[in-house]
Design brief:
Chains A, B: InterPro entries: HTH_HxlR, WH-like_DNA-bd_sf, WH_DNA-bd_sf. 2 copies of one chain form a homodimer. Chain A has helices at residues 25-32, 39-42, 51-63, 85-88, 91-114, and strands spanning 37-38, 67-72, 78-83. Chain A is an alpha+beta fold. Chain A has a single domain (19-118), classed as Orthogonal Bundle (Arc Repressor Mutant, subunit A), CATH 1.10.10. Chain A has a 3-stranded antiparallel beta sheet. The structure holds a DNA duplex.
DNA sequence: CGGTATCCCATTTGATACTG
DNA sequence: CAGTATCAAATGGGATACCG
């Protein structure tokens, strides 16, 4: 059986950039799992994220309807992010990835280490 | 309840670059679902992939123990890629992403379109 | 507090041409 | 057939400083 040339339609996840595979979106979703969070709160577990990148991430998520952004008109300002139903629907996926990693990351890392020295593209070693 | 600063350990999927979120790996896995495939076979459904990028993708997958590469010493050459058990274990994840997209991509795209005109970072419109 | 504004770098992806 | 080689473009992510 040969592969279908139209196996991957044009709206494939890889064509339409649905940003779950980026560096921070998955972690942001998990941060919001327990309820609404402020910008500053998110920066705590997301230790290495810069404000610029966190803003970009949240704006993209807001644009895609994964989170809502609510700015309370107070002083000092208070901005709260919350998962939408759409965003919440991604939690099982995030968790599935996490579970896979827990179960298989060791094997993957071992495989990666094994292929350190040997780089012969030659016909399989005997 | 405040967020745990150590919520994301250093071996988090985002820290150790496990390449499933890249452009082609997921699709390659699905191409190999039905059994071993040759390099040229993979290029058919993966229409827009260049040989260079497909090679890079396959090499990375091989290094991580997701596929095996078997070069038969014939003329013309014949090279066959096959999913390992580790790689096969990713199929449920890939499928879950696919299912999510089938069910929610429309909603996401609509949300994205809605946020086209309006870019006010202002306190929620009345 | 919740961001912006710049500037910069690394990685990823692609176009094109060529080869054992 | 199954790749390499070379070059270029795009994207993502980050460092640093500043602002209402």
């Amino acid at each position: 059986m040969s592969l279908d040339p139209d196996m991957f339609p044009s709206y494939c996840p890889s064509s339409v950039p649905v940003r779950i595979g980026d560096k921070w979106t998955g972690m942001v979703i998990r941060c919001l799992e327990g309820g609404p969070r402020r910008f500053g709160e998110l920066r705590v577990p997301l230790r290495r994220v810069t404000p610029k990148v966190l803003t970009e991430t949240l704006r993209a998520m807001e644009r895609d309807g994964l989170v809502t952004r609510t700015a309370h008109d107070e002083n000092p300002p208070r901005v709260v992010y919350e998962l939408t139903g759409l965003g919440r629907g991604l939690l099982p996926l995030i968790d599935a990835v996490g579970t896979w990693c827990e179960n298989n990351l060791d094997a993957l890392l071992r495989a990666r280490e094994r292929h350190q020295g040997l780089r012969p593209t030659a016909p399989a070693m005997q």
